UniProtKB/TrEMBL annotation:
<comment type="similarity">
    <text>Belongs to the RRF family.</text>
</comment>
<dbReference type="GO" id="GO:0006415">
    <property type="term" value="P:translational termination"/>
</dbReference>
<protein>
    <recommendedName>
        <fullName>Ribosome-recycling factor</fullName>
    </recommendedName>
</protein>
<comment type="function">
    <text>Responsible for the release of ribosomes from messenger RNA at the termination of protein biosynthesis. May increase the efficiency of translation by recycling ribosomes from one round of translation to another.</text>
</comment>
<dbReference type="GO" id="GO:0005737">
    <property type="term" value="C:cytoplasm"/>
</dbReference>
<dbReference type="GO" id="GO:0043023">
    <property type="term" value="F:ribosomal large subunit binding"/>
</dbReference>
<keyword id="KW-0963">Cytoplasm</keyword>
<dbReference type="InterPro" id="IPR023584">
    <property type="entry name" value="Ribosome_recyc_fac_dom"/>
</dbReference>
<feature type="region of interest" description="Disordered">
    <location>
        <begin position="141"/>
        <end position="161"/>
    </location>
</feature>
<feature type="domain" description="Ribosome recycling factor">
    <location>
        <begin position="21"/>
        <end position="183"/>
    </location>
</feature>
<dbReference type="InterPro" id="IPR002661">
    <property type="entry name" value="Ribosome_recyc_fac"/>
</dbReference>
<keyword id="KW-0648">Protein biosynthesis</keyword>
<dbReference type="InterPro" id="IPR036191">
    <property type="entry name" value="RRF_sf"/>
</dbReference>
<dbReference type="Pfam" id="PF01765">
    <property type="entry name" value="RRF"/>
</dbReference>
C-alpha cells in the first residue's frame, strides 16, 4: 500500500467488508419472501447439482409467497424435492408449470435468534473494518518514523482514514438496523 493510494485502498477494503455483510444478511430469512432465501438451494438437474437460480426464475409477487418457474418443465419435480430437503422449512406446491412456495411467518423465538445472528455477522464486519483502519494507521505511523512524510501529512492521512472508518461503521449500523426492523415486522 503506497501512501498515494492509502485512502482509496482503505475505503475499498472497508467497502468489501460491508459488501460481505450485505451478502450474509440477504441469506437471513425475515418474515418477507425474497428470492435470496432459496436461490442457493442445490437442485439435481441434468445429472448435476445446480443452484436453483441456474435452472429457474424466482420471484416474490406477494410478501409471503415465492413463485418458481423452471425453464425446463422436466425440472419441476427435482426443484420441489430440493426445496423440501433443503431444511428451510418450506412446503412447495406445484401449480401447472410453476411452483408456489408459501413462506410461513416467523415465531417470536426465531426472530430473536435471527436478530442475534444479525448482530454476530455485523460484529465480524466491524472487526474487519477496524483491522483495515489499524493497518492503515500503522502504515502512516511507520512512514512518519522513517521520515517519508511530515507531521502535517501524517495528521491529514490519519484524519482521512478515521473519516473513512466512521463512514463505514455508520453504513454497517444502517444495514444492521434495517435488517433488525425487517425482522421485527410481523
Amino acid at each position: 500500500m503506497d501512501l498515494d493510494n492509502l485512502t482509496s485502498e482503505t475505503k475499498d477494503r472497508m467497502a468489501k467488508a460491508i459488501a460481505h455483510l450485505d451478502e450474509e444478511l440477504k441469506g437471513i430469512r425475515s418474515g418477507r419472501a425474497t428470492p435470496a432465501l432459496i436461490e442457493g438451494v442445490k437442485v439435481l438437474a441434468y445429472g448435476n447439482p445446480m443452484s436453483l437460480r441456474d435452472v429457474a426464475s424466482i420471484s416474490a409477487p406477494e410478501p409471503r409467497l415465492l413463485v418458481i418457474q423452471p425453464w425446463d418443465a422436466g425440472n419441476i419435480d427435482p426443484v420441489v424435492k430440493a426445496i423440501r430437503e433443503s431444511g428451510l422449512g418450506f412446503n412447495p406446491a406445484v401449480d401447472s408449470n410453476v411452483i408456489r412456495v408459501p413462506v410461513p411467518a416467523l415465531t417470536e423465538e426465531r426472530r430473536l435468534e435471527l436478530a442475534k445472528l444479525v448482530n454476530e455477522k455485523s460484529e465480524g464486519s466491524r472487526v474487519a473494518v477496524r483491522a483495515v483502519r489499524h493497518e492503515a494507521m500503522e502504515r502512516v505511523e511507520k512512514d512518519k518514523k522513517a521520515n517519508r512524510i511530515g507531521e502535517d501529512e501524517q495528521k491529514r492521512l490519519e484524519h482521512e482514514v478515521q473519516k473513512a472508518t466512521d463512514e463505514a461503521m455508520k453504513l454497517l449500523e444502517e444495514k444492521v438496523k434495517a435488517k433488525q426492523e425487517e425482522l421485527a415486522q410481523i
